[in-house]
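Weekly structure sync, notes
Attendees: PL (lead), two postdocs, one rotation student
Agenda item 3: pending single-chain targets
PL asked that the sequence for the first pending target be pasted directly into the notes so everyone works from the same version. It is reproduced below exactly as submitted, 582 residues in total.
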Amino acid sequence: MYVKGLVTSALMATAGWGCHNDSSGNEGSASGGSGVVSGGATDAAETDNDTPTGDGSSGAGDDTSGDPQATCEAIAPGASPVRRMTRVEYDNTVRDLLGDKTRPGLNFPAEEESLGFNNNADTLVVVPILAEQYQDAAEKLAETAVAEHLPALLGGCNPASLGEATCAEKFVTNFGASVYRRPLVAEETTALLAVFNAGLEQYDFETGIRLVLTTMLQSPAFLYRVEFGAPIDGETAVRKVAPYELASRLSFFLWGSMPDAALFKAAADGKLETKEQVAAQAKRMLADPRARDAVREFHDQWLKLKHIEEVQKDADMFPDFDPAVLTLLRTEAETFIDHVIWDGEGDLNTMLQAPYTFMNAELAKYYGVTGPMTEAFEKVELGPGRASGFLTQGGLMAVLAKANQTSPIHRGKFIRESILCQFIPPPPDNVDITPPEVDPSLPTRERFIEHSADPFCAGCHQLMDPIGFGFEHFDALGKWRDVEAGKPIDATGTILSAKVMGDFDGVDGLSTMLVDSPEVEACMTRQWFRFAYGRGETNADTCILDELGAEFAASGRSIPDLLVAITQTDAFMYRAHEGDSK
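Predicted structure, written out during the meeting:
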């Protein structure tokens, strides 16, 4: 109980570390700490009550006073909320810090989604059960790390020859800088050494180290990205993001994990000061395999790929459906995204229009096409209209369908909200949202005609259904069909209330319109903005979104170039500041 009490006291002490920060944002030199596997450290936030504009625009137009050009020239970083690690970020971080690949975060409660992503700072609260699971995970991780990697944790310090107190202090100072992703302040070091001494006195050296690591892994300095920034001469409302804070911004954005040794060294050496230095690090990091994982995580959420394996289909309607194929459908989608972004053209247009996908023998059999003959996924060119980038892949089509039929509503809503960034309000409480029953004698289009006839439904459904009908060649399993209910498929559709409007035929016709739409281009930057900053955009972000949109267009809509451009914005390099208490 005595040792547990000291762990709690140390956690309380480290929770208030920001109160002891110096005005430079805790800048100092780390002294050589390292993560077990990949290296590590070397030798209060404001909220914005504006809501996302959600209309496919940049949010401009609410304030027409003053000179717009002068407004955009001013540093305006928008809100900078304190951000807690997601489950994926937690697992990635303990992997890179401790070499642990058990993925303890899978046992944590699932994050709540906001604007399509699960890393929105406003929703990442800590409920009591999560606090308990953080404690359990910290205890298990620390026990394993000390049992299996103690010499690495100590950085080669030998307590038998150099003394237990010396090695403990080196561990707290050096490895602690990796855990907290910055040098520790004196109060933190004192509190953690008190925990070590309690464990040493009651048990032994290893117990003391284990208790210190357990404490660190529950600290807000580990679980959160708390930023204070560095003052700028003549500025009171804005601060630069301090170097160690900027290192974490880069690593969690591009890797979903902690900084590596090179990033920590750049922070310690004052080489994360300029946009050019930050861009150089971003480009280096994009060449690392961890960037593929982070980009895949974005698409798993944006394109609902993580829901593919949750799909359930009606056994009576689809007696041959085998849920085992769902893993293959997700692999198809992720392999396609990886190829386009990293090995192919790298641009948004290809993602929307590529006439190919990736399959193995089993998936080709599922689709009923000629394809690979082995278990390996290979690039497969499909016929006209049958492939239009990620829009026609079976996994997405199955997710955007009901258990027993397709859903023009969900498919159209997906285009409106995820591709055009337009908001569709929920139906009134007194409206029956039950989809029409399947009728073997009626195609889907005819069964959904009531939506356009009922005045209570028509207003919203005219925005979704006419788009969703364009996907009707793809059934609820994502398979191509030419006939439904004995009639040829009618895949004609219409886009209304958008900057590019008109009729189209099939998904290939739809994708041609989407590629020509400035709203789709703007939405791509908006979606990455939300994911990168862990919040929705507001009117304060108008200039930044316009800047990103212009650079995205100039790059030929290159996704890797967009990621680098995000690190160059005011929102990434600076943070809003309101008084010393923040």
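Discussion points:
- The first helix runs from residue 2 to 15.
- Confidence is low (pLDDT under 50) at residues 16-66.
Action: rotation student to compare against the earlier draft before next sync.
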